[in-house]
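User: I've been trying to design a sequence by hand for this structure and keep getting stuck. Would you show me what you'd pick, starting by listing the structure so we're on the same page?

Assistant: Good idea, let's start from the same input. This is the structure you sent:
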């Protein structure tokens, strides 16, 4: 990348800065992060803009495009709550910058507030002195849905209710930071902040280094140590509990699990046994020592909390009570997210800490208190009304009823305050503060003020509370959008805390040398299932593409005739029939180009190559913490390559070119699996899926093109589909014949495309996977694989007529089902504890 000093002259830099900032002014009534009330730039903004100004706008745009390409290639995405579609991660190109002095003051207030929340939870679930002393209304506690009675009297393992605290903050009317909301339930956003940093640091590495931006690794290392603090075992197994791939924050959770080396699990992956929490793995039950939950507390234990929950683990609260499980954060900690608590925090801080809050919030009155209700009624037109309890997820500030809405529905509001006043809080809630954001017009880039909310994080570590030097910033693209919740129209921004001294790189090094390990780790059954089907779907896509290629081009040598010249001949008809039977084409009689386009790119066609690739990508999405960035890029390229406009007609030549490029991408994906995946259980399952699917597909190919009456044209197609023309030509000079073709694609153990080769590989994989039986007797899937291998070793080509091939295909399907029953079974009867050995 071009050094900053070589980009443009001082005059060009000054001209760009003047144009970017021309006309920039804070929105009426809103404090701004860039400009102070007197119109002067704040803190670090001049330094940032000056350095960006040394870049020409074409260079800037090239970097923006590079960042967007990286986001796409890495599969960084998000879901809006309630929407199953994935959207590309909306990272803005301008970071929020904060000077070191300002950040130190902000951090001190955040640490004080985090410790105060910890003390409140310890009292509420313990002695109850705050309620007894009149500092906290009993109704506010007992009436909150976040107060979990089964947890009263709990002594949290590790001694902490909170291991992670977050706060949504913005600038108040006086320009100082204030807390808009406390996040103590299961704070999200750290993974997004991490992804933002990785993208923007590689987009502007020169600017990043020159401005001395504080780094993240030391914080995350300390946070991980804090997660493990209090565990019974010296080398604890830490799990991150997610609600699954359709969670709006799943990508973020996977990024955190990968970065921190945590085991990403769902509720079905966990089970209680002997009073301890265990992970269901392909090796049996393995003990979980610490759990970072990212699901709401009410869904955590269906036995004691919400019986309708399917996200949690029955009986897990028992592990908390007996001290065998450390959790971040303890269930019930969401009580501190109540908007009503803000009315009492100043008094509680003076009571528990002996000092005023360093980081306050907007003035608040709880309507369950007579004095608070009276004040709200008297000032209803000047206040904002919001729920006292935590609003439903996805509601954000939409749950807030401002003065304008109050005026439109005043009668209903007054009635609600009369009937259920304790459900509401009145606040002096000012419009959100703004920060600069890029806007592109015909004359180039300009800076415009946009509303933002900054989420900052504090983690309790073995050395006390530490604040992440940055945060998760959400910026609205329009003035009338609220960025409290991430949704369409909201962008994210990296947060740069600028150090006033050189960044100490030694802090990023491990404080102690870790013990050398060569263990492969334990693979959850759910992850094994996803990896297995990832391999199968990739192989299905390849089989469909190979059929289309065979239909679109000549075999091109002496082994067969050109079937393009006879698109309705018997061999072509068999290809069309097979594509239809596989669900890749809606009808065998379609024109060749239409049939090929449908089989390759049909979005609504369940068996098309595109459908299989998207299924593979969905399975990969559940395994984001296990696949490399290169694999994601190949998958993204494949999806793009096979995403053609269905309303546009493509020629056979164009479709052939796309199909051939797709085969190259699939070969790259297979190579990445072979070269980049550690030879642990995960690799075994990816390759098992590919091998089984390839063997089954080859059976179908043989039934269609290597049957007893097959002509040279069909046999040539068979060799092409199995990518075995070169091997056949090197062995036989006489031309294609049935038995030699069958022997090569079915029985030859040296041909990586033959069924025999797949069977041998499957048996090796199964032999290397862990066994759950201690009696030495092979498990059912191993016995079945051994029988298949033995049959191929002892058979001749003539043995595999149509009946023999159909029987072998059924045996392979049985083997796939047997593997699934052994390793992937789910539900209440899946991998029952009494069946499992190897607890550890």
């Amino acid at each position: 990348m071009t050094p900053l000093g070589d980009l443009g002259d001082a005059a060009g830099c000054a001209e760009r800065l003047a144009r970017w900032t021309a006309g920039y002014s804070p929105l009426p009534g809103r404090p701004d992060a860039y400009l102070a009330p007197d119109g002067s730039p704040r803190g670090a903004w001049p330094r940032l803009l000056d350095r960006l100004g040394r870049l020409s706008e074409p260079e800037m745009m090239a970097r923006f495009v590079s960042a967007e390409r990286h986001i796409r290639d890495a599969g960084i995405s998000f879901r809006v709550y309630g929407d199953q579609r994935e959207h590309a991660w909306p990272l803005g190109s301008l970071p929020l910058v904060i000077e070191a002095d300002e950040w130190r003051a902000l951090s001190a207030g955040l640490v004080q507030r985090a410790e105060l929340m910890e003390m409140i939870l310890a009292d509420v679930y313990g002695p109850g002195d705050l309620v007894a002393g009149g500092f906290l209304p009993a109704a506010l506690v007992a009436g909150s849905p976040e107060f979990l009675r089964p947890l009263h009297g709990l002594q949290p393992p590790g001694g902490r209710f909170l291991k992670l605290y977050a706060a949504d903050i913005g600038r108040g009317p006086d320009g100082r930071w204030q807390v808009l909301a406390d996040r103590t339930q299961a704070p999200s956003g750290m993974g997004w902040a991490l992804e933002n940093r990785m993208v923007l640091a590689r987009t502007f590495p020169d600017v990043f280094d020159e401005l001395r931006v504080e780094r993240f690794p030391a914080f995350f290392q300390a946070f991980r140590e804090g997660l493990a603090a209090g565990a019974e075992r010296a080398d604890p197994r830490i799990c991150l509990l997610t609600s699954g791939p359709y969670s709006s924050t799943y990508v973020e959770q996977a990024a955190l699990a990968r970065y921190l080396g945590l085991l990403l699990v769902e509720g079905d992956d966990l089970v209680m046994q002997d009073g301890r929490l265990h992970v269901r793995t392909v090796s049996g039950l393995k003990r979980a020592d610490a759990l970072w939950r990212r699901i709401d507390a009410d869904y955590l234990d269906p036995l004691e909390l919400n019986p309708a929950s399917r996200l949690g683990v029955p009986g897990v609260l028992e592990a908390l009570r007996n001290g065998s499980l450390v959790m971040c954060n303890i269930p019930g900690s969401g009580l501190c997210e109540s908007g009503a608590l803000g009315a009492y925090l100043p008094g509680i801080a003076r009571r528990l800490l002996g000092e005023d809050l360093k980081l306050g919030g907007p003035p608040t009155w709880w309507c369950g208190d007579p004095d608070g209700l009276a004040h709200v009624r008297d000032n209803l037109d000047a206040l904002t009304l919001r729920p006292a309890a935590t609003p439903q997820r996805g509601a954000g500030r939409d749950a807030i009823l401002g003065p304008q809405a109050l005026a439109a529905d005043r009668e209903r509001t007054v009635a609600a305050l009369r009937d259920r006043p304790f459900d509401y809080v009145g606040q002096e809630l000012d419009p959100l503060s703004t920060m600069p954001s890029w806007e592109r017009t015909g004359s180039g880039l300009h800076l415009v003020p946009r509303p933002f909310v900054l989420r900052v994080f504090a983690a309790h570590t073995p050395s006390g509370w530490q604040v992440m030097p940055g945060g998760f910033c959400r910026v609205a693209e329009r003035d009338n959008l609220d960025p409290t919740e991430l949704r369409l129209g909201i962008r994210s921004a990296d947060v740069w805390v600028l150090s006033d001294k050189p960044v100490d790189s030694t802090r990023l090094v491990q404080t102690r040398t870790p013990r050398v390990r060569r263990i492969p780790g334990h693979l959850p059954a759910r992850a094994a299932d996803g990896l297995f089907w990832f391999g199968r779907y990739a192989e299905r896509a390849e089989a469909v593409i190979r059929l289309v290629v065979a239909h679109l081009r000549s075999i091109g040598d002496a082994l067969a005739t050109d079937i393009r010249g006879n698109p309705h001949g018997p061999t072509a008809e068999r290809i069309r029939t097979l594509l239809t039977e596989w669900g890749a084409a809606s009808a065998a009689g379609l024109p060749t180009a239409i049939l090929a386009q449908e089989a390759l790119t049909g979005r609504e066609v369940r068996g098309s190559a595109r459908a299989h690739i998207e299924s593979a990508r969905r399975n990969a999405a559940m395994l984001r913490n296990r696949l490399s960035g290169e694999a994601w890029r190949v998958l993204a390229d494949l999806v793009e390559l096979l995403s053609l406009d269905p309303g546009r007609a493509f020629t056979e030549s164009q479709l052939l070119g796309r199909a051939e490029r797709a085969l190259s991408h699939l070969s790259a994906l297979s190579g990445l699996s072979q070269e980049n995946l550690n030879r642990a259980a995960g690799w075994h399952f990816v390759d098992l899926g590919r091998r089984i699917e390839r063997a089954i597909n080859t059976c179908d190919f043989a039934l269609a093109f290597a049957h007893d009456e097959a002509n040279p044209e069909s046999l040539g197609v068979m060799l092409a589909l199995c990518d075995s023309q070169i091997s056949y030509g090197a062995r036989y000079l006489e031309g294609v014949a049935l038995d030699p073709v069958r022997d090569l694609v079915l029985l030859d153990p040296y041909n990586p495309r033959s069924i025999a080769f797949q069977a041998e590989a499957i048996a090796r994989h199964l032999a290397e996977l862990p066994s759950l039986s201690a009696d030495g007797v092979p498990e059912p899937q191993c016995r079945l694989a051994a029988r298949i291998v033995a049959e191929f070793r002892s058979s001749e080509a003539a043995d595999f007529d149509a009946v023999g091939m159909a029987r072998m295909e059924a045996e392979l399907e049985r083997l796939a089902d047997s593997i699934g029953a052994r390793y992937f079974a789910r539900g209440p009867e899946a991998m029952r504890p009494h069946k499992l050995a190897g607890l550890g």
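That's my pick for every position. To get oriented when you compare it with your attempt: The chain has a mean pLDDT of 87. The radius of gyration is 31 Å.
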